[in-house]
Amino acid sequence: MLNFLIRRLGMLVGTMLAVSLLTFLLLEVNGDAVVVKVIGPYSTQEQREIWLEANGYNEPAAMRYVTWLWDVMRGDFGESIRYRAQVADVLWPRLANTAILAAVVFAIMIPLSITAGVIAGMNEGGVTDRIISTVSILTTSVPEFASAVFLAFLFVLTLGWFPATSTMSEGFEPMQLVMPAMVLVLFGFGYVARMMRASMSEVMHSNYIRTAMLRGLPFRRVITHHALRNALIAPFTVIILQINWLLSGVIVVEFFFAYRGFGALLLEASLTQDIRLLQACAMVSVVVAVSTQTIADIGYGFLNPRVRFT
Amino acid sequence: MTEVSAPPTQGAARRPVLPKVLTSPVAVIGGAVVVFWCAVALFAPLIAPYDPVEQFTSFVRPGASGPDGLWHMLGTDHLGRDILSRIIFGARRVLFFAVTATFSAYAVGVTMGLAAGYLRGWVDDVVSTIANIVLSFPVLVLYVVIISVFGASGGNIILAVTFASAPGIMRIVRGIVLDLRNRDYVASAETRGETAPYIMFVEILPNATSLLIVDACLRLGYVTITIGVLGFLGLGLPPPQPDWGGMVNEARSMATFAPYMTLSPCAAISSLVLGLNLLADGLRETELKD
Asked: Is B109 in the A-facing interface, judged by CB distances under 8 Å?
């Protein structure tokens, strides 16, 4: 078990380093591109060279990567051009806002999709199964921005139930969370439900379920004590990896509803070419993504002992 | 069912693919939607009532005529351009880039997967490590970063899609190849002394295609969504030529008093992706029947 943990954590560190190198290569290695974004396109060649020299860009690339990585690891991302403030001061409150949204989405989506998947997998081929499968294929086919448009038309413009934007400009308002959360739940629901359905139907066809049925155990007991335990193992990874997917989803939804979260900040950094902010956002999302993948791996190893020793 | 519909004169082993697909209603509905949009894209200049960038009266409601007496089925946008014509020409642009980008991702991903699965050893290690690193990125974050570095253009979207999707395709192909490489026909080709590229592309690849077609349909759907999302975020294909995501982005701020401007492009992209997903679902089912 300890070996397994050490190996996984080693992979975590390795992937983080590789991913940070890729981010560095994409965004930071070309000093001439960085300087134009930091001091502006109308700067003279002389000003640019002075800036490059002063900020250590004339060092070899490998040296710069190490220095850059060290700064990033300490949480020092430099100064945002647009906000004229330390990137860290802008970033963390935004990340907290996204965490609130993500928590709400998970709290609704996971129980909903697991229940739907279990019911569909139990009655394979039945009417409920067909309805749930149709709904899930429908909701995964509609891109987030399109479902945001449809839902906003229905609930905001026609029915007037919820506010159109989620700026939270006058303090935190739970009502403003409804629309963004609904869009994200809708898009993620189908995928998790389908995984859960596949896993449940596989378990229902297994020999030990047939044995339990033949022993005359009540159907409810067979489901809750025998089937569910094993059916939940495979979708566990899928559920944890939804955090990774959510990091993509929030970009669209936060932009659409003007929610002041991390995704909107990343997009803003990209559109305004705020390179330090973009680097920080990219690194933070990569750290979140890679750590959740490791958690999923380790958790799966705990749940399914067969994996641990291979 | 399938046995009855197969013509008796034909050899049992080699039935054509098409009739088998037609037994699945899901695949037929999905396929019809996809064919519809392909036809729209192909014949756009013949179908579209107006030029997609020509400006008429602004904010003509759907089904109404402007003061110039010209009728607009889906209305006109804030610059007075006919929305139906923009959707029709948008189909052309969206499908062209979605298909090209998916094809390019497949070319790279299949080559990587064949090499990793057939050659094994250090090639497999290198290719799989690269794939793991790229797949660690949240996908949209990767797109946003690539587009902000290289700029928003059709070519760069193809590049970004290839970069982000090829690793996933590689994993699938690698898995299939690991299974197929132990088949007798591979061993016989090796004994004949065929080269590795010949075995990978001529012996193994044709036997993997039926599995890859399902994945290609799903992936074409994802790529369509990606192109739509990038357009919606303002990082997509450059204006003024229409694309569906870009149309939503432009009309977003006016959604409160002119919702028809955003609703129709959203319906267009959703129906195309739904068609592709249904087609993939139906194909997979008929594939499993064998």
From this structure: no
